[in-house]
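peptidylprolyl isomerase
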Amino acid sequence: MRISRRIAASLAVSALVLAGCSNDPDAESSATDSTSSEESTDAPTEEQAAQVDALISDEGMPTIVDTDGIITLDFEGATEPDVLQVAVIDEGDGTAVTREDLVIVNYAGMVWGSDTTFDSSFERGQPSSFSLSQVVQGWRDGLAGQTVGSRVIISVPADLGYGPMGGNASAGIGEEDTIVFVVDIIETIAPDSAGDADAEEVTPAGDLPITVEGGLGEATSITINDGAEEPDEETSILVAESDGEPVGGEGTTVYFQYSAATWDNSQSESSIDYGGVQNTTIGSGTVFDKLEGVPVGSRVLLLVPGTESAPAMAALVDIVAQLEAPGDTE
């Protein structure tokens, strides 16, 4: 079994495993549910290849309705635009989003003129994250340039949404439908983000069973040292410790870069090979649960024993960010 498959099996959301669109509020969901194409890992279609600059204007846009934290839109008096249009309701003072970033957001999506949402993280009570390189073009280009802390309304014409894919029947989106989203931008993470370059070394390089190419705060690759003893149980070794907030417990989403190798060095890879920053959920019963309590920005070595069908492996993990579980306090 390739490393990528073993790593992906441990991830809640990754560049390798993307959910299809769902309008079932009880289904396990991520932001890719309503924004990604049904073939998210394929190259963009010709219609979606060119960059589009959104019209920044609130003219003709719907208004937001907030009912005890559940967000919808009121289309009375609104005029459906035929271009990608963004209304900035509240402008944050954080980092600007780029078209390649992974974003953490709360959002609600509606077909223009509808009175119900087809997808809403507000209703699920948990923000979502996804890579803008794997969503419909209206999301990618509509969020580009907006800043963390902002609330925006994005109106996406069919040709920049689900039109090129013939609509999305499971979400009730027709081929010619304009779709509209309210988006609260919580965080944006560059795909090549790494850990804290100033983290304090805890385990000297000579005490590790691996050799690392790449310093703290940089992309890495690893090889297993000759004669290194194979792990017989899942193990974590704190390599370098940052002063960030400790990763929370069950339900916390943790974002990280990794480089990995099988114990015989026959296979190696890094998260950069699969689009950059990955994420998983603490409490999923995988080796990544050992990141709980480790400060964000730190570097950790995870060791996984072999099985009858796969060799032992090591993964060097740089923790980039986290999203606390619902109900947790910062």
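thats it. Helices lie at 3-8, 32-35, 46-49, 121-124, 137-143. The chain has two domains: 32-189, 192-323. bye
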